[in-house]
Amino acid sequence: MSGSLFLTEAEKVLNPNYMAYLSSKLGSHILPVHRVHSANVSDLAAGAPQTVDGGSVSLEERILVAGQTDKSENGVYVVDVVGTGSNGSWTRAKDMEVGDILSPASIIVVHEGSTMADAVFKSTNLVNKTVGTDDIEFENIEPRQLGVPNIAGIENNAYLPFEIEIATSGAGSANVDVSVPVDCEVTDVRVVKLALTGGASDTVRIINGTGSDYITDAMSLNTVTAGGIVRPSSLDQSHVALSAGDTLRGTFTEGTDDCQAKVTVVCKPL
After folding, report:
1. Which residues contact residue 116 at a Cβ distance below 8 angstroms, ignoring those fewer than 6 apart?
2. Residue 106: what are its φ and ψ, rounded to 5°?
3. Rounded to the nearest 5°, which phi and psi values hold at 146?
4. What is the dihedral of CA 254, 255, 257, 259, to 10 degrees?
5. Is pTM beyond 0.90 here?
6. Which part of the chain is CATH 2.60.120.260?
7. How far apart are CA 246 and CA 265, in angstroms?
8. The CATH homologous superfamily of the domain defined by 161-269
9. What are the φ and ψ backbone dihedral angles of 2, each rounded to 5 degrees?
């Protein structure tokens, strides 16, 4: 069993120089920032492709979709199934779901891609838009063209969501604890089954602290095969708020086989 805190591709998160540039572009108030792995700026009429901007997509990667003919389909998606060609499956990300309100000039930061790596997009809407209903467009404002350098190793950036990983290697039932680095709020939980083994009663649950402040229900691993994703039916909003130094616990309960899973907890700094 192991527990670790990490920021996905932390070496490429926004740095203060970027924020100064964006402030000059958008005004003194920095609007919501969303991170994505790569961006697709052409229409995906054929479905969810295996390759985006020159790179193969992977399970759980976040993709900016910005070129749909039906502009209401644009937004941030998460790879649920990696297909072979265009038969994969992507769903809208929890921070940009159908029905959410997208603020004017919201910012999307792209980390990878043969042409879009380090690009910054902003929504061009002048008023709040409803995701999945209203037309949404994104403009590439490309601060990289201004010679703004990346600064490696910046962690706990106040503007970006981050991820906490809680993993089990299959050594049986156990509690895996991780210390929360900053004041934050849990916005999403994803469980990836790591092996074909896993009995009907193998479950994973996420807890705020070491008691019974359950953030999620007990998520069963028997509903998916290896590589499949399990999500909670809901998050208990009375327990999603965390303070710096709090314990975030993953409770892995073994049934008939070893409980092997990786849990990714997405948090938004407060």
Report:
1. 38, 39, 41, 53, 110, 140
2. -60, 150
3. -90, 0
4. -30
5. no
6. 161-269
7. 14
8. Galactose-binding domain-like (2.60.120.260)
9. -150, 150
Specify burial of residue 154 (Cβ count, 10 A radius: 0-12, 13-18, 19+). middle
Q: Are β-strands 33-36 and 107-110 bridged in parallel, bridged antiparallel, or unpaired?
A: parallel
Q: In the chain, which residue ranges form alpha helices assigned H by DSSP?
A: 16-26
Residues 108 and 62 sit within 8 Å (Cβ to Cβ): no
The answer to whether residues 224 and 202 touch, using CB atoms and an 8 Å cutoff, is no
- Cα distances (Å, whole numbers) of residue 107 to 64, 113, 175: 11, 18, 37
Using one digit for the tens of pLDDT, what is the confidence trace for 127-169? 778 888 999 999 887 554 333 333 333 333 444 566 787 877 5
**How do residues 42-93 score in pLDDT, each as one tens digit?**
888 777 888 899 998 888 888 999 999 999 999 999 888 888 777 888 988 8
Residue 62 makes CB contacts below 8 A (sequence gap 6+) with 34, 35, 36, 37, 76, 77, 78, 79, 93
Residue in 111, 113, 95 with CA at minimum distance from that of residue 40:
113
At position 257, the amino acid (one-letter code) is D
Supply 74's token pair. Answer: 């644009």
Q: Please give the Cα distance from 216 to 220 (Å, whole number).
A: 12
Taking 70 as the threshold, does the pLDDT of residue 30 lie above it? no
CA-atom Rg of the chain in angstroms: 19
pLDDT, mean of residues 20-36: 54
